[in-house]
Amino acid sequence: MKYVNDSKDNAAGGSPVRVALDAFGGDHAPDKVILGAAAAVAEINDMEIILTGDEKTIKSRMEALGVSDKNITIVNADGVIEIEDDPMLIRTVKKESSMGKAFGLVASGRADAFVSAGSTAAMVVGATTLVGRMKGVKRPALAPLMPGISGYYMLLDGGANMECRAEMLAQFGVMGSIFMQKIMGVENPRVGLLNVGSEREKGRELEQKAYEALKNSPVNFIGNIEGRDPTMNLCDVAVTDGFTGNIYLKAIEGMGAFMKASLRGIFTASAGSKVGYLLSKKGVKALSKKTDYREVGGSPLLGIKKPVIKAHGSSDERAFKNAIHQAVNFCGAIGEIEAGIAALKEENQ
Amino acid sequence: MKYVNDSKDNAAGGSPVRVALDAFGGDHAPDKVILGAAAAVAEINDMEIILTGDEKTIKSRMEALGVSDKNITIVNADGVIEIEDDPMLIRTVKKESSMGKAFGLVASGRADAFVSAGSTAAMVVGATTLVGRMKGVKRPALAPLMPGISGYYMLLDGGANMECRAEMLAQFGVMGSIFMQKIMGVENPRVGLLNVGSEREKGRELEQKAYEALKNSPVNFIGNIEGRDPTMNLCDVAVTDGFTGNIYLKAIEGMGAFMKASLRGIFTASAGSKVGYLLSKKGVKALSKKTDYREVGGSPLLGIKKPVIKAHGSSDERAFKNAIHQAVNFCGAIGEIEAGIAALKEENQ
Question: Which pTM was predicted?
Answer without folding.
Answer: 0.92
